[in-house]
Amino acid sequence: MTTAALGALAIVCAVGAWRFTTARWTHRAPHVAILLWQALGVAWGLASTGALLSYALQPYGQGVIGGLHAFTVSIMTGDYPPAAYDLPHVIALIAGLSLFAVLVTVLLTAAVQTLRARRRHRELLALIARDDPGVPGVRILDHPRAAAYCVPGLRSEVVISAGALKLLSRDELAAVLAHEMAHVRERHDLVLLPFSALRRALPWSQVVRDAQDAVGLLVEMAADDRARRHCSPRRLATALLRFGTAGSIPAPQGMLGSVGSQASVLLRVQRLLSPLPALPRRLRVAALTLSLTLAVSAPLLWLLPH
C-alpha cells in the first residue's frame, strides 16, 4: 500500500510539474506559485526514492524509515527475511539508494560551487568595485556596459555598473535597486538552488529545464512585486527596457540579476504596465493547501509501516 501510494504521488508530481510549466495564473500570484513549485520538487524527490525503497524493504514490514533501520540491523546480525535479498528487492534497493544519493549529492555540490563562486566574486569586488556617496550601500563597478545584480548570502551586496548609472534616470535606478534588494531579502537564491541542482541530476529532462525557467521567471516577478511597493511600476518597466536595448551584461554565475532573457523581460514589462487581476482568495488558499499537502505527504508516507 505504501509503495503504491508513493509511486502514485511521484507520478502526480511529475505530471503536475509538466502541466504547471505552461500555467499562466502563476503570473498573478508568483509567491504562491513558487511555494507550490517547491512543494512539487520536494514531494517528487521523496516519493520517487521512497517508492523504490518501500518496495525493496517490503519484507521487513516496517515502512521506509523503519525498514532502513531493520535492514541495517539485519546486515550486522545476519538475521533477515528470506525475501529481503531476492533479485527484484535488491535491484529496487540499489536504485532507490542511488537515486537518493544522486539527488543529495547534486544539491550539495551545487550549493558548494555557488558559495565558492560568490566568495571569489566578493574578493574580486573588494579589488575593483568602489562605493559612491550618491548611491549608498551599493557597490559600483567601473564598466561601460549596463549591469545590475546582487550577491546573496549572509554578507549580501548589490552591484551596479557605471554604465547603468549613466543609462538610468534617478527614479529608474531606485526601481532597479529595489528589485535587487527584493532578491536579497526574500533569498531567491535558495529558491532557485534545488531546481538548478535537479537540472544537473536530470540534464536530459525537458520538464526539469522548463521548471527551472518557470521558477526563474516567477522569482523575477516576485521581486518586481516587492519593488513596486517602493517605486513606480512604470519606472521599473522602462529601466528593464533600457537594459534590454542597451545590451546589458548578464549576472555572473551564482548571482541574481535584474534582466533575464528577452522573452521574460517582455512578459515582466507587460505585467508591470498592465497589471493582472489578483488571484481570488479561494484559489490562493487552495494552492497553499495543495502545497502543504504535497510537502508533508511524502515524509509521512516514509514513516508509515507497510
Automatic annotation (TrEMBL):
The keyword Protease applies. Gene3D superfamilies: Metalloproteases ('zincins'), catalytic domain. InterPro entries: Beta-lactam_resp_regulator, Peptidase_M48. GO terms for biological process: proteolysis. Residues 117-194 form the Peptidase M48 domain. GO terms for molecular function: metal ion binding; metalloendopeptidase activity. Its cofactor is Zn(2+). Binds 1 zinc ion per subunit. Pfam families: Peptidase_M48. Keywords: Hydrolase, Membrane, Metal-binding, Metalloprotease, Protease, Transmembrane, Transmembrane helix, Zinc. The chain crosses the membrane at residues 35-53, 90-112, 285-304. Belongs to the peptidase M48 family. This is Zn-dependent protease with chaperone function. It comes from Thermostaphylospora chromogena.
